[in-house]
Amino acid sequence: MSETLENLLKETRQFPPPAALAAEANVKADAYAEADADRLAFWERQARRLAWAQDWEQVLDWSNPPFAKWFVGGRLNVAYNCLDRHVEAGLGDRVAIHWEGEPGDTRTITYADLHRMTCQAANALTGLGVTAGDRVAIYLPMIPEAAVAMLACARIGATHSVVFGGFSADALSSRIADASAKVVITADGGFRRGKPSALKPTVDEAVSRSGSVEHVLVVRRTGEEVAWSDRDHWWHETVEQASPEHTAEPFDAEHPLFILYTSGTTAKPKGILHTTGGYLTQTAYTAHAVFDLKPETDVYWCTADIGWVTGHSYIVYGPLANGATQVMYEGTPDTPHKGRVWEIVDRYGVTILYTAPTLIRTMMKWGEDIPAGFDLSSLRLLGSVGEPINPEAWMWYRQHVGRGELPIVDTWWQTETGAIMISPLPGVTATKPGSAMTPLPGISADVVDDQGQSVPNGGGGYLVLREPWPSMLRTIWGDDNRFVETYWSRFDGMYFAGDGAKKDADGHVWLLGRVDDVMLVSGHNISTTEVESALVSHPSVAEAAVVGATDPTTGQAIVAFAIPRGTADVSGDAGEALIADLRNHVAKTLGPIAKPRQIMLVAELPKTRSGKIMRRLLRDVAENRSLGDVTTLQDSSVMELISSGMKGGK
Ligand code: 6R9
Question: Residues with Cβ < 8 Å from 256, sequence gap 6 or more?
């Protein structure tokens, strides 16, 4: 990585925070110095945001690295912190969730409601024999019961494992088996793309293959016919009949809260384990600091699915620990029309929107007339997560969603980090389009070279974390060796995130994508992110994915897949002309070495359910191989389209 072309993109635009927001911001510039002066004392103060049944004796036990213990000896209940204490403080009538189903049905759920539903679910799970330490798999659509199920597990100390609704029976059964889940919570189905999409048949198949499941709890959402067996229980006949009285028992700060599987490159997914006290401390703090969350007045909306870590930390735990009011939406952004997201912002007066670059680029493709058709004046802060956000997508977001004035927080983090690690602070940081900027207070991230030496400003290398942080993963479920091997053995004493990054002349961090995706062209390391951003900076391109394909002359050659913007003419000769123009545009922006060998114009790109481009599959196409594992693909028909285009095309 040391050979990375330096500062390929000469991004010079910079936007200071709006003065009014800066003046009232939850967190000011002094937070950095405060945390630098005494990192552990800083996190100890953040832990005081929570209600503890018993204080900790030690902030951090790092005597056996990389196995960390935070807030040693402390005891607390996560659901108590997210619900009971707000109700006890007289906030029971505050709306916790404005929920909207894809067909347009709505529910308004207050903190008192959410508390009651969670207590009932906790009692029902206890009735099914679930006790502290047991694992419960959750396979639900984006309905309030998903949050209730998670909170009910937390309340009784059961460890939840949420699996994306939409993953195959294979993916679900291997996750159930790995965690030996005793109960599965699911629904008959959910609504996606304008029609019911069944879940229960997948659960039936997965459960029949894994021996551990004793009970399946089923929410009725679509009303479609489902097969039934002795181990199945309707949610409305068990949970909704259970007592709403339940006393939350405190658990150890290191009690396992949840397992969340990430797919990784090898076949067996990694069960990332998060625990209680440190996780809730950092998710609560970052929601407060990065989103400047004002629970009395804000209406917050994170568009993530609950099956992604973003849904765990920034729909369920972080916002609810802060007592926030939020929007939750079941369906896809183009059902029944392409303005659905903006219609929801308009209807609920959303003030803070947290979404992914994939959605922003999709909106670019659909054109700015669509957001322009709605009143977005309630918005005051925008966030991005999941992938590097290309500078032009960032500018489009600011211009067409943020009225050319709202701050954008580009938040870098991972399932493994549990909470946001690198991000602007909205009232402090002068942001640069495409940069996640600086590690948050209390976080020590760095960019290092092959030898693990910190690179100077202007240099590129590997992103690492030098010090343990409260919401760090504690291990890979059932596989301590793999935990050490995967994250802690590349560089001595540092956590290796697997991402490439560079520091600009001011020391600000730019993420360059997964190091596995870096291309080696004629001896030069070129990041996929930079070539993609160069393509997206062309006025006719909304979205692009770039891969390195084996090439007899250059080692690897750059192959690009580009989605034209709504307005671009791409038929016949016009398409050929655009491709030629794009190749030259990249060469001009980044240098001739980065000129793609081949560019394909496509309508869609293969993505995971959390919106990440699956470059691995595109590499298979570019190298004429049969496709690898597609179980985490959001829409499998996309690959057929792209493969046939590739064969028929050039
Ligand atoms: C939260 C989440 C983690 C990987 C991570 C990186 C990429 C996430 C990013 C970003 C650049 C950002 N990533 N946020 N890259 N800028 N703001 O996405 O978790 O699904 O585990 O993915 O996503 O490559 O390593 P997860």
Answer: 133, 159, 273, 274, 275, 276, 474
In which residue are the tokens 């002359």 written? 553
Evaluate: CB of 429 within 6 angstroms of ligand 1. no
Determine if ligand 1 sits within 6 Å of the CB of residue 410.
yes
Find out whether 207 is annotated in a ligand binding site. Answer: no
- Tell me, in angstroms, the distance from the centre of ligand 1 to residue 307's CA: 15
Q: For a pocket test of ligand 1, which of 382, 413, 486, 533 has the largest count of ligand atoms closer than 8 A to its C-beta?
A: 413
Q: What is the reported pTM?
A: 0.94
Report residue 139 as tokens: 């396979």
CB distance 354 to 365 below 8 Å:
no
Token pair of 570, please? 């791409």
For the four alpha carbons of 69, 71, 75 and 79, in that order, the dihedral sign comes to: negative
Give the span between the Cα atoms of 355 and 340, in whole angstroms.
14
In contact, 27 and 289? CB cutoff 8 Å: yes
Mean pLDDT calculated for residue range 7-34: 90
Cβ(413) to ligand 1 under 6 A?
Answer: yes
* Segment 539-553, tens digit of pLDDT: 999 999 999 999 999
| Residue 170 pLDDT greater than 80, yes or no | yes
With bands split at pLDDT 50, 70 and 90, how would you rate the model's confidence at 391?
A: very high
* Ligand 1 atom with least separation from CA of 310: 1
Is residue 510 within 8 A of residue 582, CB to CB? The reply is no
Q: Is 412 in the pocket of ligand 1 (CB under 6 A)?
A: yes
435 dihedral zone (left: phi>0; alpha: psi -120 to 50; beta): beta
pLDDT digits (tens, 9 = 90+) for 346-376: 999 999 999 999 999 999 999 999 999 999 9
| Mean pLDDT of the region 194-199 | 95
- Mean pLDDT value across the chain: 94
Contact 445 CB / ligand 1 (< 6 Å):
no
Q: Is the pLDDT of residue 6 over 60?
A: no
Q: Amino acid identity, residue 179?
A: A
Quote the ligand 1 centre to 192 CA distance (angstroms).
Answer: 25
Burial class (CB in 10 A: 0-12, 13-18, 19+), 489: exposed
Tokens 């545009």 — which residue? 585
Is there a binding annotation on residue 541? yes
CB of 610 within 6 A of ligand 1: the answer is: yes
- Strand-strand pairing, 509-514 and 495-503: antiparallel
Alpha-carbon distances of 560 from 69, 166, 484, 545, 577, rounded to whole Å: 44, 28, 35, 6, 16
Residue 392 has pLDDT above 80, yes or no: yes
Tell me what ipTM this predicted complex has.
Answer: 0.99
Tell me, using a 6 A CB cutoff, whether residue 529 lines ligand 1.
Answer: no
* Any atom of ligand 1 within 6 Å of the Cβ of 497: yes
Asked whether residue 413 is marked as a ligand-binding residue, the answer is yes
Would you say residue 648 has pLDDT above 70?
A: no
Q: Is the pLDDT of residue 633 over 80?
A: no
Closest atom of ligand 1 to CA, residue 413: 1
